[in-house]
Amino acid sequence: MIHIAAAETNLTTARLVNERGRTLLQLQQMAHMLQKNDWLEIIQHIPPGDNPTAHSDIRRMLFPLGPVVVFGSSNFPFAYSTAGGDTASALAAGCSVVVKAHPAHLQTSCLVANAIIDAATVTECHPMFFNT
Fold this sequence. Notes:
Layout: H1 2-9, H2 13-36, E1 43-45, E2 58-60, E3 68-71, H3 85-92, E4 97-100, H4 106-122, E5 130-131
Parallel strand pairs: 3-4, 4-5
Antiparallel strand pairs: 1-2
């Protein structure tokens, strides 16, 4: 992917390796949140000093609102593109993602999209959680 991105964008290999590392870190953080269900932000509300058994179990919980559209950036083929921070944030929030790849690095975007689709297949995610 690095060599293809470098050929498409004329960015240096060192810069692309750094950007890929940042993107992978964001995706790993997303996966960690999903494993722990942190994206739900479940908070149980019990008034201080009260007996919790005497009150109803009141919780606040986040819900995904719907699909997120990500428009790929021309100068960041990994970090602000197909699998970048915007995509990771949307997926971590439980939203499906639709990506519009930037024409400056279509081949790179396709490779990354195929990697996401392959990972979704292996992990048995809903087939519509990610579209390009």
